[in-house]
């Protein structure tokens, strides 16, 4: 019975998701910015890499104040990226190559250029006034309360014409929708159905834990841990502005919309501690299928910390809740920048051998670096509006490096963001020729995972987390794989008691040790990870 249910695992439980930041993937029309035609052009690369689904950051009509996370028309593709027909072509071409397509849904806020907001702003009596969050000022005329924008400053913007303030969790040009209003909900569900009916396979929902705010507009508590180096909005704890209990009711509604269409996926972007994160599976799993698990994005690269966060996550999952892991995204520094290019290979091995759906950020498969962007080329509003430019996100959004031709084969003209300096050597074409490259490591790991029930469905158990070494076992139906990662820069050896470690090395992160026999002793080079298929009689 159990077996039957598990072999029935849904595509997103078996699959690997690949995030594309469309501005930076491939530019076909020669304006220095990536587009949908560029994504279509590169689909064969993704099919060959072996991923199962692509998630596109927003491609809808937008003034681009926050690079598409400020939408002015949910049902139109921005001309920068192409047309609705291009999007249909993309979905069709992706499906033909066995790839699913996930779009970004940004329901928490619109652009201030969205007609809904233009109407809402037109006056207190406008029928759409209540579609956004309007409040009178405090008795002293200042902002209604102490809520802060994630992008700096007060979250309230004064509107002189109506003498009221509107709330924006991000830029002032990204007013928050009022999700307590049923008309707003219906309007966004209509947007969802519009895209689902066009054949897309699911949504990644932007800042889903922000949707509902406190109905009493209470001040957020001051954060006692706030200190130098913290982003300015961390001065208060977002107790009343995010993760409100009522949000789960809204998400269950979104989930029902998804479930009107067979086989579609709902992912939530949620930055919360693990015990709060798992609540987003919803009561009786009525919430998102995958609440994005970002624990690895900021985890210290150290065996004890990693083992603890994996164990905490595994323990916190609700019955039937499917795990997932994310190693990089368009908001956080690149993994290769954070832990270095050699350890990034172990990052790949960890991501693709843990239990649950992995999400790969474009370019991480070639070890794309975090890029230092000169001040005059910064674009991200977080970098340009907050005094500390270091918080900016441009450095992880640089163009994909395809080959050694001009502009790395990304575009015929100077790209919107600079390339990483190493693009002549570090690019997809070069790495395809080098059987030991990180690209081939990703490919091998994905291939192994795809065909291996232990990796797809097996249980997880840490067996050692000490110093630089992290060892864990995945087990399914009597078959076991041992994953051993050396997170340090010195070689390491482990002697096991007789009879406990016996098997065959299936894959090494250095891609040159396949089929070695392992018996009693495990030798790992510096910054090396290995996957060992254990013999039936090994008693690890
Ligand atoms: C999400 C997006 C981020 C964006 C923010 C506001 O966190 O990932 O890029 O700036 O929402 O929409």
Q: What topology emerges from the helices and strands here?
A:
Blueprint: H1 2-7, H2 11-14, E1 17-20, H3 36-41, H4 43-49, E2 53-56, E3 60-61, E4 73-77, H5 84-96, E5 100-105, H6 115-121, E6 134-135, E7 156-159, E8 164-167, H7 182-197, E9 202-205, H8 247-259, E10 265-268, H9 274-277, E11 290-291, H10 295-298, H11 303-316, E12 324-326, H12 335-339, H13 341-353, E13 357-361, H14 381-385, H15 428-433, H16 438-451, H17 453-457, E14 459-466, E15 469-476, E16 479-486, E17 492-495, E18 502-508, E19 517-519, E20 521-524, E21 529-534
The structure holds alpha-D-glucopyranose.
Description of the structure:
This protein has 540 residues and is α/β, with parallel strands linked by helices. The protein has 3 domains: 11-108 and 182-214 and 244-449, Glycosidases (TIM Barrel, Alpha-Beta Barrel), CATH 3.20.20; 115-167, Oligo-1,6-glucosidase, Domain 2 (Oligo-1,6-glucosidase, domain 2); 459-534, Golgi alpha-mannosidase II (Immunoglobulin-like), CATH 2.60.40.1180. It has helices spanning 2-7, 11-14, 36-41, 43-49, 84-96, 115-121, 182-197, 247-259, 274-277, 295-298, 303-316, 335-339, 341-353, 381-385, 428-433, 438-451, 453-457; strands spanning 17-20, 53-56, 60-61, 73-77, 100-105, 134-135, 156-159, 164-167, 202-205, 265-268, 290-291, 324-326, 357-361, 459-466, 469-476, 479-486, 492-495, 502-508, 517-519, 521-524, 529-534. It is globular, with a radius of gyration of 24 Å. It starts with a helix and ends in a 6-residue tail after the last strand. Mean pLDDT is 96; it is low at 1-7. Alpha-D-glucopyranose is lined by residues 66, 69, 106, 170, 206-207, 269, 330-331.
């Amino acid at each position: 019975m159990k077996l039957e249910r598990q072999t029935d695992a849904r595509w997103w439980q078996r699959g690997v998701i690949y995030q594309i930041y469309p501005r930076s993937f491939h530019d076909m029309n020669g304006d220095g910015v990536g587009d949908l035609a560029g994504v279509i052009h590169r689909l064969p690369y993704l099919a060959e890499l072996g991923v199962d689904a692509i998630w596109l950051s927003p491609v809808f009509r937008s003034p681009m104040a926050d690079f598409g996370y400020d939408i002015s028309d949910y049902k139109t593709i921005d001309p920068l990226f192409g047309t609705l027909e291009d999007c249909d072509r993309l979905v069709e071409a992706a499906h033909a190559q066995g790839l699913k397509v996930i779009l970004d849904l940004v329901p928490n806020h619109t652009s201030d250029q969205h007609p809904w907001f233009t109407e809402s702003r037109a006056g207190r009596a406008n029928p759409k006034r209540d579609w956004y969050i309007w409040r009178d000022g405090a008795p002293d005329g200042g902002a209604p309360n102490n809520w802060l924008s994630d992008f700096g400053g007060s979250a309230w913007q004064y509107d002189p014409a109506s003498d009221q303030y509107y709330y924006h969790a991000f830029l002032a040009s990204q007013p928050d929708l009022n999700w307590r209003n049923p008309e707003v909900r219906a309007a966004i569900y209509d947007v969802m159905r519009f895209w689902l009916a066009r054949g897309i396979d699911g949504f990644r929902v932007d800042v889903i834990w922000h949707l509902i705010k406190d109905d009493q507009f209470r001040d957020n508590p001051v954060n006692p841990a706030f200190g130098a180096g913290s982003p300015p909005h961390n001065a208060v704890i977002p107790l009343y502005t995010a993760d409100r209990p009522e949000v789960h009711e809204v998400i269950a509604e979104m989930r029902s919309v998804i479930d009107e269409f067979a086989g579609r996926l709902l992912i939530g972007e949620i930055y919360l501690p693990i015990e709060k994160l798992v609540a987003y599976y919803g009561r009786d799993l009525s919430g998102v299928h995958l609440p994005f698990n970002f624990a690895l994005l900021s985890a210290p690269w150290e065996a004890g910390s990693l083992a603890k966060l994996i164990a905490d996550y595994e323990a916190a999952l609700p019955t039937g809740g499917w795990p997932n892991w994310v190693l990089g995204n368009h908001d956080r520094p690149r993994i290769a920048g954070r832990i270095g290019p050699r350890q990034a290979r172990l990052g790949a091995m960890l991501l693709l051998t843990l239990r649950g759906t992995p999400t790969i950020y474009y370019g991480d498969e070639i070890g794309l670096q975090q890029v230092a962007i000169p001040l005059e080329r910064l674009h991200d509003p977080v970098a340009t509006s907050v005094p500390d430019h270091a918080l900016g996100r441009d450095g992880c959004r640089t163009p994909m490096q395809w080959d050694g031709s001009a502009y790395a084969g990304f575009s015929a003209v100077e790209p919107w963001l600079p390339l990483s300096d190493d693009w002549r050597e570090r690019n997809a074409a070069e790495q395809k020729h080098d059987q030991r490259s990180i690209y081939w490591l990703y490919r091998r790991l994905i291939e192994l995972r795809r065909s291996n029930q232990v990796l797809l469905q097996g249980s997880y158990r840490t067996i050692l987390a000490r110093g630089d070494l992290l060892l864990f076992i995945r087990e399914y139906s009597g078959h076991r794989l041992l994953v051993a990662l050396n997170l340090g820069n010195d070689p390491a050896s482990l002697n096991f008691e007789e009879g406990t470690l016996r098997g065959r090395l299936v894959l090494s992160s250095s891609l040159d040790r396949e089929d070695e026999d392992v018996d009693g002793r495990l030798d790992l080079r510096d910054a090396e990870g290995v996957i060992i298929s254990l013999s039936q009689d090994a008693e690890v």
